[in-house]
Amino acid sequence: MTLTASAKPVSPPRPPAVRRAWRKVSPYAYIAPFFTLFAAFGLFPLIYTAFVSLYRVELQTPGDMEWRGLGNYTALFGDEFFWTALRNTFTIGVISTVPQLVMALGLAHLLNYRLRGRTFLRTAMLLPYATSVAAATLVFAQLFGRDFGLINYVLGLVGFGPVDWQTGTVASQIAVSTIVIWRWTGYNALIYLAGMQSIPSELYEAAEVDGASRWRQFFHVTLPGLRPTILFTVVVSTIGATQLFGEPLLFEGSISGGISHQYQTLGLYMYEQGWGFFHLGRAAAIAWVMFLLILVLVGANALIARRRSRKEAGR
């Protein structure tokens, strides 16, 4: 007697039309979760904020909406505290961004050489970035104390009088900018370091053969190779400076940014209008003004970089 194995049922081949349709649809199915989350938590809040900015909405009665059109924006531009917050945002942004990126570039240049303990130094640079904003700001608020702060104690040793870091306009903005510089310098330094390590070593060898010193190598090899990375850090730092909120809020614990609003930023001003004065419509208008301001600044940076690259390509 012979035994014969039962043949497995063969599934019918998939129609070519279904296979072609799946090949076209499958990439969109893979990226659908991202766009779903983006639409729910990114696009919808942005559109709804623009909708709310056209109405008079109070926090106590969010269901009662009164049409105002552009009234929130005209009232905003007529408020002197808005222009004060805008000026403070620009000043603190410049004071914190420029030294931060310059110091980060110098630190990255030093770490690019073969130093002892480079791994430890790179890890230590990320510690300020990993530190909580609240913890860092509270510590710096104690350091910048007028009567018992360490900064004034050191200034007293070299002959300077005590500085009221929380009342003076320039002093308070410098203090807030110092917190931002401390937190983000190491982060940007590691980004610059990654960009430096992607520059071909043959360029440095050729420059050394031509007799270029390390300074000339830095200005003529490193900086041109880091131009896209520098543009990226400038754009990210500009966005961060425009949205600055935690540091000025916790520096003194006041949503007004000091007695005379001397270090109130746009983010803090928006919080004050929405959750301090309960004007949700005006707070939404401020949010959209900040969004448009970021678009203008980022576009200006991209335009300047494009024009400069065109000039260098035409040489």
- The beta-strand count equals 2
Using the CA coordinates, give the radius of gyration. Answer: 27 Å
What is the second-level CATH architecture?
Answer: Orthogonal Bundle
Q: Strands across the major sheet, in which order?
A: 1-2
Order of helices and strands: HEEHHHHHHHHHHHH
Average per-residue pLDDT, rounded, comes to 87
CATH superfamily: MetI-like
Domain unit count: 1
Number of helices: 13
Helix content: over 70%
Question: Tags for this entry?
Answer:
mainly alpha, MetI-like fold, single chain, 72% helix, 315 residues, two-stranded antiparallel sheet, 2 strands
Topology diagram in text:
Blueprint: H1 16-52, E1 55-56, E2 66-67, H2 71-77, H3 80-111, H4 118-130, H5 133-143, H6 150-157, H7 169-197, H8 201-209, H9 214-225, H10 227-242, H11 246-252, H12 266-276, H13 280-313
Antiparallel strand pairs: 1-2
Helix pairs in contact: 1-13, 2-13, 3-7, 3-10, 4-7, 5-7, 5-11, 8-9, 10-13, 12-13
Protein name: Sugar ABC transporter permease
Family: Belongs to the binding-protein-dependent transport system permease family.
Membrane topology: Multi-pass membrane protein
